[in-house]
Design brief:
363 residues; Porin; 56% strand
């Protein structure tokens, strides 16, 4: 078995933690992005509250919790199939944001968040994430086009099975241009530094340098929105280029991400229906150290990751008559995600379907 795949869940643990974290961050990312684009389009629409809080409660069902590889003729991939598949889990996410600076076109926000994911069947895949961030944004015009530009720094400390997994520093800049009432384009550039923690073992396992996943990831991209009825409906498309410079040659790649999606808001109760498609193609730059098993070091790895997400969001404020909730965001979301990764190395090919039902309260 690969030494790198045996460390505290190995790359399977990294996959699991990434998917949990991605699911838990979607509501917050949508809230932040909506605020950015709304502020850029209409400065008078800035949120009055200097302090904002976000609470998410999730129930999740996963059919391949450990991201076990698909059946194949590869001995290593078959040995990694241990039957840990179906699972049910719960997740709690809380966030706090404070606008410490509001002067003219400038806004700066400091934020803290925590989420914990519990996997009922596989406790070793439980995930806790502690995160802090600082955002600075400025509204204005660029060649007479309304815009908002900003910079975000974030740090997060993520544990897997209550042991440290990774620490990340991320620095990102964005530029949102409102070309017209119909069109909006969001440009992004980001650098992320990842440092993984190696679990101690007895006897000590020496990990080859080629399997070191510590890395710096560079990303640039743009997403264009075509909006209808004051953003109640939209379609979007985008492209991102990301380059992973890992210390271990097995994990350095050039990636291409293609993004498509859309949203339609029903006239009844403002229920939002949305669909997102994501294709991430990763072309690894060096021959894999130990794979394939019949020809170690014989080929470079290539992955194609397809993600389809369907979502239904229902605002709940209309159910509550108390004045306390009038200026707050309250909704319930049902979500289904299908993820397929096809790789020329069978150990990295797998399929996962998971559904989530979660409640979000932003105030």
């Amino acid at each position: 078995m690969l030494p790198g795949a045996r460390r505290k869940g190995g790359h399977r643990g990294r996959i699991e933690s990434h998917d949990w974290r991605t699911a838990s961050q979607r509501a917050r990312v949508r809230a932040v992005r909506t605020a950015q684009l709304t502020d850029a389009q209409d400065p008078a629409a800035q949120r009055d509250a200097a302090i904002r809080r976000l609470l998410d409660c999730y129930l999740l069902s996963i059919d391949n919790a450990a991201a076990e590889p698909n059946r194949s003729h590869d001995a290593t991939a078959e040995a990694a199939r241990q039957g840990h598949r179906e699972s049910f889990g719960e997740l709690l996410s809380v966030g706090l944001e404070y606008d410490w600076l509001r002067t003219g076109p400038w806004t700066s926000t400091i934020a803290f968040s925590f989420f914990g994911a519990h996997n009922n069947s596989l406790g070793s895949f439980d995930v806790d994430d502690y995160s802090g961030s600082l955002r600075v944004a400025r509204r204005g015009t660029l060649f007479e086009i309304p815009m908002q530009a900003g910079f975000n720094y974030s740090y997060d400390y993520l544990t897997l099975g209550y042991d440290e997994l990774v620490q990340r520093h991320s620095m990102a800049g964005y530029l949102a241009l409102i070309e017209s009432a119909r069109h909006l384009t969001n440009f992004q550039a980001r650098v992320e530094i990842k440092r993984y923690h190696e679990t101690e073992s007895t006897p000590k396992v020496v990990i080859p340098s080629e399997l070191n996943q510590d890395a710096t990831n560079w990303l640039v991209g743009a997403i264009h929105f075509v909006r209808f009825d004051r953003d109640r409906h939209f379609i979007k498309g985008g492209y991102q280029l990301d380059i992973e410079q890992a210390k271990g040659s097995d994990y350095s790649y050039v990636g291409h991400r293609f993004i498509l999606g859309g949203q339609y808001t029903l006239p009844w109760r403002d229920i939002r229906l949305s669909y997102d498609f994501d294709l991430h193609y990763r072309d690894y730059l060096h021959r894999n150290l130990l794979l394939p098993t019949d020809d170690p070091g014989g080929k470079e790895r290539n992955d194609r990751e397809y993600t389809n997400t369907f979502r239904v969001e229902m605002p709940l404020t209309w159910l509550i008559k108390w004045d306390f909730f009038k200026s707050q965001s309250l909704f319930v979301t049902a979500e289904y995600t299908n993820k397929i990764i096809n790789s020329n190395l069978d150990l990295y090919s797998y399929q996962r379907d998971y559904g989530a039902l979660y409640f979000t309260w932003q105030y």
